[in-house]
Design a protein that fits this description.
With about 220 residues, the chain is mainly alpha-helical. It is built from 8 helices and no strands.
Amino acid sequence: MDAGSAHPSPTAATPVGAGGPAAALPRRRDAAQTRRLLLRAALHRFALQGYAATTVREIADDVGVNAALISRYFDSKEGLFEECLTGVSTELGATPPATTLEEVALRMAEQLTGPSSAEHPNQLVLLLRSSGDERAEQIRFETLRTYAVRLADVAEAATGDGDGPAREGLVLRAQLAISAALGIALLRSRTDLEPLASVETIELVAPLTAMIRALLDPRDVGA
């Protein structure tokens, strides 16, 4: 979100500047608040510019704090990036309170239909963008792998009868579901393909649920 916006989105950073809401924050912020603001600013910068092009100074300046606080709260730029990716995968719905495939579909739909533009890309593109940094790439791929495993866990628990499919096949299908969701995010973020570009959450839930069920319902695996 730019410095002049009066209504920050929950996933976009709000740089400090004349008229910006961050300027109205109390002078004495507590550590938790500062940490949240740094994480929000980093999500925005990493999605917009990529990992390599983003500096810790830019992120700190967006919040109006000293860059040393990033090391204090996240250890390093890599640590901050890892927490951003973890947050994105959690928002997708493979962790509680999303415990059913329907809940996962709803969470995915909410993320995929969130605000997205050239200046404010959907945060899911973080999982797609190559960073140009070897350690950051390891973090990105590990986040994707972990998310697929968690998604497979949700699917495996869907029947609760202990008669699920081979684990490897279920994880593969989870990866296919993630790939499809990220493809939707990329098209919505980078193109004007209609009606996909402007579809509302409610319109996306049903087809996403059908897609996820077709790929992940253990009773359908191997069909």
